[in-house]
From TrEMBL:
Gene Ontology cellular-component terms listed: cytoplasm
Gene Ontology MF term list: 2 iron, 2 sulfur cluster binding; metal ion binding
Name of this chain's protein: CDGSH iron-sulfur domain-containing protein
Transmembrane parts of this sequence: none
Pfam families: zf-CDGSH (PF09360)
Protein's UniProt keywords contain Zinc-finger: no
Record bears the keyword Iron-sulfur: yes
The organism's taxonomic lineage, starting at the top: Archaea, Methanobacteriati, Methanobacteriota, Stenosarchaea group, Halobacteria
Domain of life from the UniProt record: Archaea
InterPro entries (UniProt xref): FeS-contain_CDGSH-typ, MitoNEET_CISD
UniProt keyword annotations, A-Z: 2Fe-2S, Iron, Iron-sulfur, Metal-binding
Domain Iron-binding zinc finger CDGSH type: 10-51
């Protein structure tokens, strides 16, 4: 499985002590690209658990859609 992700940030997020989750005592960095609290994990990755191998998905406004074909402008 794969997913298309758009990133709009143009600078890094600096992690400090205030970012530590008071209950869990850790910092969870989002690796799926879907978090609304990016770069921190907000649990949105749970939407990816049933993605199928070999498929490409796009998530928009909380909705998952499968991409049938990617076409690049320069091809
Ligand atoms: S890893 Fe992306 S929301 Fe959790």
């Amino acid at each position: 499985m794969a997913r298309e992700v758009r990133h709009t940030a143009t600078s890094p997020r600096i992690i400090d002590e205030d970012d530590i989750d008071a209950e869990k005592g850790d910092i969870a960095i989002c690796l799926c690209g879907l978090s609304a609290a990016y770069p921190f994990c907000d649990g949105s990755h749970q939407a990816t658990h049933d993605e199928e191998s070999g498929r490409v998905y796009r998530y928009e406004d909380g909705e998952r859609r499968e991409i049938e074909e990617l076409v690049f402008a320069d091809e």
